[in-house]
Design a protein that fits this description.
Layout: H1 2-29, H2 34-39, E1 47-49, E2 65-73, E3 79-84, E4 90-96, E5 101-106, H3 107-110, E6 114-121, H4 122-126, E7 141-144, E8 148-156, H5 163-171, E9 174-177
Parallel strand pairs: 6-7
Antiparallel strand pairs: 1-2, 2-8, 3-6, 3-9, 4-5, 4-8
Length: 178
């Protein structure tokens, strides 16, 4: 009887290890993830509005939000992101190449009419000259853990008739190398 309990316990333990390692390895082994799907329609370091009809690109997006994406590459230097805020609500989220979110900001946290920040790697930040006149309130710097990734911009349209206004706010967003 004890032998069967040990075999059962060993089987459950082995099954748990296999399940956990599979779940953790899946994002890195997926061949057609969000970054790959977006690389087909978006150039590097440029904000591109996402069409509403293309729900296969980023599924389960809220239809009340207009969305745009910047697929970035920091291998040649840092980026400057500027996004005007919309009338209702604007949010900017940063993701690594494998979909791990590492930073987000919205219009209320920015406290201005424009979300403006610099995106760079830790190494690029260390190479920046120290400027005593520039404070953290003057310049928001986001450090990316990877060289490539996605910036997703969303603007809320509280009513369907206001969707063109949200889309025009995202169309004015810029993601360009410095």
């Amino acid at each position: 009887m004890t032998r069967w309990i040990l075999w059962l316990l060993a089987g459950v333990l082995l099954g748990g290890i296999v399940h956990l390692s599979t779940v953790l390895a899946l994002p890195r082994t997926a061949a057609h993830d969000a970054y790959a799907r977006l690389s087909e329609i978006t150039p590097v370091n440029q904000v591109v509005p996402l069409p509403k009809s293309q729900s296969t690109i980023l599924p389960f997006m809220d239809p009340a939000f207009a969305a745009a994406v910047c697929r970035y590459d920091l291998s040649r230097g840092s980026l400057k992101l500027t996004a005007p805020i919309s009338q209702a609500y604007t949010a900017v989220s940063f993701y690594t190449r494998y979909g791990i979110a590492y930073y987000a900001i919205n219009d209320r946290a920015a406290g201005r009419k424009l979300i403006e920040l610099d995106l760079m790697t830790t190494r690029q930040r260390e190479e920046m000259p120290e400027d005593e006149d520039v404070t953290a309130a003057d310049r928001l710097i986001v450090e990316s853990p990877t060289l490539t990734g996605l910036i997703v911009l969303k603007a809320l349209s509280p009513e369907p008739a206001l969707m063109p206004m949200a889309e025009s706010a995202l169309a004015a967003a810029r993601c360009k190398p410095q």
